[in-house]
């Protein structure tokens, strides 16, 4: 009987060691084929632990028909994703979210970004290109108004919407940067019409409401190409071309929430969370061994295996670890041994009734099951609702707690029963009575 | 069993802390964090100890409404204002950094709309958890209908639950009033976890009552059965909570600022939850049964 359980225990311990190696492989960095393929999966850290910024934008869909809203949001997501990818940060996240009140939102998470201000500028600003013509009523303007370029020029139909692409060039003699614009078919026609009507006059090119170039028109321009020569540095010109090419935002957005954590603070949170976890586990182990003796030791082994499996699952699912998530995991360590305590207390009762050790062990496990199941379901209900409710921080907590409870039911019941039966004590000697006793007696 | 016999003493004690908690909540009110009210929080770490008063004066000059500047630890300051646009954020940051070498280590700005939504979600989640737990217990104990209907097990568990979340809320209302401790979404998370855990303990006792009723419920009266059940399970109730309290103490003392008050709320909740599952939920079942049989 116990030979079979000894073999299974041996397998469990072997599997545990294997998974433990997977858990720590990132820190050991062994050079092997296996490492590069499987073992290199890292822990996924939340923004609060690795530093970074979480931005929430509200999209203004007032100008869009309700039926087209989700399409517009997808377009918005694509454009912002392209802009975000230009930063080259690791694993940015851009997702559409519908709020309870029906607002359409866009969540942008940039891990490891240091210059948040720059990032916000790049994401939110629409490079808004306009072509304006001279105001026919310039004579009627006051001296004051003549200085205001937005009054001197009036809007035409041609805007950045008709842009196909922008290219950076340099003047062959002066080496000044030139931005070449290529319009799409419709834009080309508009541009031809615009230049034809304004021969001998000037056309102003406005970027974000400011005139950047006011060339004179000598003749009609067909072919849909235009050039901007302004006072740019090469760097500015390059950035502008990038922005023009990533496209205009289909709908206006406004930043409604911003949360950023510096990397040094995140590191501190992480180190402290890990420390709390280690000490918490030591305290629980000490208590179990001192109070429940041999079964306590078995419970500690089961707890060890539990931790190993959970950490591997965190990597594989992957679970994004936040400060609250780590707290949830540590809390689940305290709850994981609850099932063991219920079982051991039940075992003691059965022993008191005069059963022999082997049958007390199996009775203890089978009879405690109902209350373990019922009591854990209530915690799972809470974890489920928290996950549903979740902001990212709370989701992390709910997920680690929920996964923890599920795995602990396996480790506390299956693993510790196998180990206890493998030891195979008969229970008649004084020593085994002491080992299965509890408390201070 | 003395716990059942002297139940009026525990009722009085529970009523006392319940009323005290309610008093604290209504007198002081819960001080809500920026994730509920909207607002901004900026933390800066200086190379040397900063001049908080001078910084305060400068920030007040920026006309951002009620700005609060507090030192945090040795070299850090925390500034709280209404929610800030990115332009205003940069203005505050450059003002603050003109006082010495330092860097921004944290900035949160949450719009009032998001705050309102989170508050609504928190309340919904609370109600949902409570309803689900009543239904779940009523379902789990559906075969037990004598002498007390299974529905009442759920109801008593929830009475204990409400008692369990009121105390941490009361304590945090007082902490908010005297030490400026704010309640945020993490606090709500802690309360919801307490709900789940408190029921966990109560179910262990109820489960034993269920088993004892099945085995010898006909021989003994309800009070004796409940008393025996509590006596049989009190050891494990205390021990299961003790392990949770041990890890929570580790988080409280070692886990760092961001989870300190979170673990405190859990500690208070778990401790009172253990008390209520032993001293409140089961005795209440007996009282209820007596009340019904008298009628």
3D architecture notes:
The complex is a heterodimer of chains A (441) and B (295). In chain A, 57% of the residues lie in helices and 17% in strands. Chain A is an alpha+beta fold and 441 residues long. In chain A, the strands form four sheets. Chain A has a four-stranded antiparallel β-sheet with strand order 3-4-2-12. In chain A, β9 and β10 form a beta hairpin. In chain A, α10 packs across α11, α11 packs antiparallel against α12 and α11 packs parallel to α13. The longest helix of chain A has 54 residues, at 263-316. Chain A starts with a helix and ends in a 6-residue tail after the last helix. Chain B is α+β, with helices and mostly antiparallel strands and 295 residues long. Helices cover 71% and strands 9% of the residues of chain B. Chain B has helices at residues 2-5, 7-28, 34-37, 52-60, 86-97, 112-140, 150-179, 185-216, 222-254, 260-294; strands at 39-46, 68-72, 76-81, 102-110. Chain B is elongated and about 80 Å long. Chains A and B meet through α5, β12, α10, α11 and α12 of A and α5, β4, α6, α8 and α9 of B.
What would a concise description of this structure say?
Chain A is α+β, with helices and mostly antiparallel strands. Chain A contains 14 helices and 13 strands.
What's the SSE blueprint?
The complex is a heterodimer of chains A (441) and B (295).
Chain A lengths: L1 H27 L4 H7 L4 E2 L1 H4 L1 E8 L9 H17 L7 E6 L5 E8 L4 H9 L4 E6 L8 H4 L2 H4 E7 L3 E8 L6 E7 L1 H13 L5 E5 L2 E4 L11 E4 L5 H12 L7 E9 L1 H54 L3 E2 L1 H30 L4 H33 L2 H32 L6 H6 L6
Parallel strand pairs in A: 1-13
Antiparallel strand pairs in A: 2-4, 2-12, 3-4, 5-6, 5-9, 7-8, 8-11, 9-10
Helix pairs in contact in A: 1-10, 1-13, 10-11, 10-13, 11-12, 11-13, 12-13
Chain B lengths: L1 H4 L1 H22 L5 H4 L1 E8 L5 H9 L7 E5 L3 E6 L4 H12 L4 E9 L1 H29 L9 H30 L5 H32 L5 H33 L5 H35 L1
Antiparallel strand pairs in B: 1-3, 1-4, 2-3
Helix pairs in contact in B: 2-7, 2-10, 6-7, 6-8, 7-8, 7-10, 8-9, 8-10, 9-10
């Amino acid at each position: 009987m116990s030979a079979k359980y000894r073999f299974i225990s041996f397998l469990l311990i072997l599997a545990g060691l294997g998974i433990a190696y997977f858990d720590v492989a990132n820190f050991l960095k062994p050079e092997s084929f296996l490492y590069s393929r499987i073992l290199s999966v890292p822990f996924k850290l939340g923004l609060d632990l690795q530093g970074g910024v979480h931005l929430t934008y509200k999209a203004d869909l007032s100008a869009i028909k309700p039926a087209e809203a989700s399409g517009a949001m997808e377009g918005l997501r694509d454009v912002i994703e392209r802009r975000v990818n230009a930063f080259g940060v690791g694993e940015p996240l851009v997702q559409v979210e519908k709020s309870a009140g029906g607002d359409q939102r866009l969540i942008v998470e940039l891990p490891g970004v240091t210059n948040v201000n720059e990032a916000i500028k790049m994401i939110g600003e629409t490079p808004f290109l306009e072509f304006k013509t001279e105001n026919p009523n310039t004579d009627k303007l006051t001296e004051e108004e003549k200085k205001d370029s937005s009054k001197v020029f009036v809007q035409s139909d041609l805007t950045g919407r008709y842009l196909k692409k922008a290219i950076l060039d340099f003047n062959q003699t002066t080496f000044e940067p030139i931005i070449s614009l290529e319009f799409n078919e419709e834009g080309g026609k508009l541009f031809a019409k615009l230049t034809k009507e304004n021969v001998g006059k000037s056309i102003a090119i406005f970027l974000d409401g400011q005139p950047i170039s006011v060339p004179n028109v000598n003749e009609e321009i067909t072919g849909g190409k235009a050039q901007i020569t302004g006072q740019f540095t090469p760097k500015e010109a390059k950035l502008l071309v990038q922005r023009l090419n990533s496209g205009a935002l289909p709908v206006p957005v406004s930043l409604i929430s911003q949360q950023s954590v510096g990397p040094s603070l995140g590191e501190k949170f992480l180190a402290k969370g890990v420390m709390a976890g280690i000490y918490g586990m030591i305290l629980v182990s000490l208590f179990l061994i001192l109070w429940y003796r041999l079964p306590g030791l078995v419970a500690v082994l089961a707890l060890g295996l539990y931790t190993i499996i959970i950490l591997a699952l965190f990597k594989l699912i992957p679970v994004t670890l936040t400060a609250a998530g780590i707290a949830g995991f540590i809390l689940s360590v305290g709850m994981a041994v609850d099932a063991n305590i219920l079982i051991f207390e039940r075992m003691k009762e059965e022993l008191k009734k005069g059963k022999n050790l082997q049958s007390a062990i199996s009775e203890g496990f089978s009879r405690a099951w109902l209350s373990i199941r019922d009591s854990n379901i209530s915690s799972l209900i809470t974890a489920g609702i928290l996950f549903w409710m979740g902001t990212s921080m709370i989701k992390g907590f709910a997920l680690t707690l929920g996964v923890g409870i599920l795995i602990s039911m396996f480790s506390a019941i299956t693993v510790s029963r196998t180990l206890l039966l493998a030891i195979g004590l008969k229970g008649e000697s004084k020593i085994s009575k002491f080992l299965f006793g509890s408390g201070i007696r | 069993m003395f716990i059942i016999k002297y139940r009026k003493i525990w009722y009085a004690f529970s009523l006392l802390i319940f009323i005290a908690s309610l008093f604290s909540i209504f007198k002081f009110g819960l001080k809500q964090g920026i994730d509920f009210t909207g607002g901004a929080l900026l933390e800066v770490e200086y190379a040397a100890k900063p001049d908080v008063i001078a910084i305060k004066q400068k920030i007040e000059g920026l006309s951002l409404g009620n700005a609060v500047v507090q030192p945090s630890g040795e070299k850090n300051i925390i500034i709280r204002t209404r929610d800030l646009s990115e332009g205003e954020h940069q203005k505050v940051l450059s003002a603050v950094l003109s006082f010495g070498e330092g860097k921004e280590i944290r900035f949160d700005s949450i719009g009032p709309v998001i705050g309102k939504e989170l508050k609504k979600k928190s309340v919904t989640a609370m109600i949902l958890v409570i309803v689900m737990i009543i239904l779940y217990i009523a379902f789990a104990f559906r075969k037990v209908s004598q002498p007390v209907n299974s529905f009442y097990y759920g109801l008593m568990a929830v009475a204990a639950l409400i008692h369990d979340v009121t105390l941490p809320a009361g304590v945090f209302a007082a902490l908010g009033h005297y030490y400026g401790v704010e309640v945020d979404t993490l606090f709500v998370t802690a309360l919801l976890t307490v709900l789940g855990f408190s029921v966990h303990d109560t179910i262990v006792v109820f489960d034993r009552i269920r088993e004892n009723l099945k085995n010898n419920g006909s021989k003994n009266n309800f009070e004796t059965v409940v008393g025996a059940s509590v006596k049989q399970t009190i050891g494990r109730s205390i021990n299961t909570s003790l392990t949770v309290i041990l890890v929570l103490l580790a988080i409280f003392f070692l886990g760092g600022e961001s989870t300190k008050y979170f673990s405190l709320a859990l500690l208070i909740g778990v401790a009172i939850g253990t008390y209520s599952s032993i001293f409140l939920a089961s005795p209440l079942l007996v009282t209820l049964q007596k009340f019904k049989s008298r009628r």
